[in-house]
Amino acid sequence: MVFKLASALAPTQPADSLQMLNRLLKTEPAYLPALALAGPLHDSLGEKDMALERCVATLEHPDATSGQILAAANLLVRLEDKPRAYAAAVAAFDAAGRPLHLCVALLYIAQRVADFDRVAELTDQLAAEYAHGDYRRAAESPRQNVLWCGDLLTNIRVTEQWSRSHLPLPEHPLAPIQIAPVEGRRIRVGYLSSDFRDHPTSRLVNGLFRNHDRRRFELYMYCSGWDDQSAMRREVESHVDHVHSVAHLSNIDAARMMRDHCIDILVELNGPTRAHRMGILCHRPAPVQIDYLGWPGSVGGRVVDYVVGDEYTVPEGVEKVYPERVIRLSKTYQVNDHAYYP
């Protein structure tokens, strides 16, 4: 019962889910489902050592399924134990009969270790599936797909399928937002990211924050990651009006917080990358929702109204196949910071 509840909470309340799993593992340290789920949750909250420990325990568990081994190996290869991760992943994939639903998990690891023969074999398997118009069974992420597939329409279809699978709209949506008049006040803009720390996203977006016209815009920073106490974190915070953590909030509670702040525009800075909290956007915390910077392309529409692009990321005419509207910037969509040199 405890695991079922923790599993149900994991997509929307990762911190609460992990707390329940850790209590369960104290009494049942070899409980495989809890070990397998806890690793990625530790990682998403910045607890790398614990993530590594849970991954290794999953790989070494005598009852681990091929799917559990491949999932743990996906995390382990990012934690820099590449040989061990790849050996375990290949063995698990072969033992399972090389099924399509595990193909993507092994492909990511094969790319990380530069086994290009294996990469070609796996991408051929995926391409054959997509040629029949089925984007569901492979369950590929947008990021994984663009690393090997140069066909834009396939990229879009995979992303739309990912969005439907990973960003379910609530059965009982919150009440529609009443847009308040902006006359006589600043426009409230919220920025949501897991990377407000010593991270490339912060080093880029810091220039944007610094150059906002603060007479016209009130800035809210919503951190879904962690405060690393770095100089970069303090620098970013110095350019916004309000700083809030949503890391330990559920998606709906985070959305309610943003609604209470009467945000006019919410800018999501992760896109469909590893540590995103795009599920918050499913609850419509702002009347206008934009995806920007961390992902240079479509995010599948549905929960965002606009994506930001340029002539390279969204070549002229390509926007007609996008499910979102495209805000096109001149020269480059990627903001940079030319003034902060720690």
Commentary on this structure:
The chain is an alpha/beta fold and 342 residues long. Helices cover 45% and strands 10% of the residues. The protein has 13 helices and 7 strands. The chain has helices spanning 2-9, 14-27, 32-44, 48-60, 66-78, 82-95, 100-112, 116-131, 142-146, 152-166, 200-211, 231-237, 251-260, and strands spanning 187-193, 217-223, 242-245, 265-268, 288-291, 306-309, 325-328. Helix 3 runs parallel beside helix 5 and helix 7 (100-112) runs antiparallel to helix 8 (116-131). The longest helix is centred in the middle third of the chain and has 16 residues, at 116-131. It starts with a helix and ends in a 14-residue tail after the last strand. The model has no long low-confidence stretch (mean pLDDT 94).
In brief, what are we looking at here?
By secondary structure, the protein is α/β, with parallel strands linked by helices. 45% of the residues lie in helices and 10% in strands.
Key attributes of the depicted protein:
10% strand, alpha/beta, 342 residues, 7-stranded parallel β-sheet, 7 strands
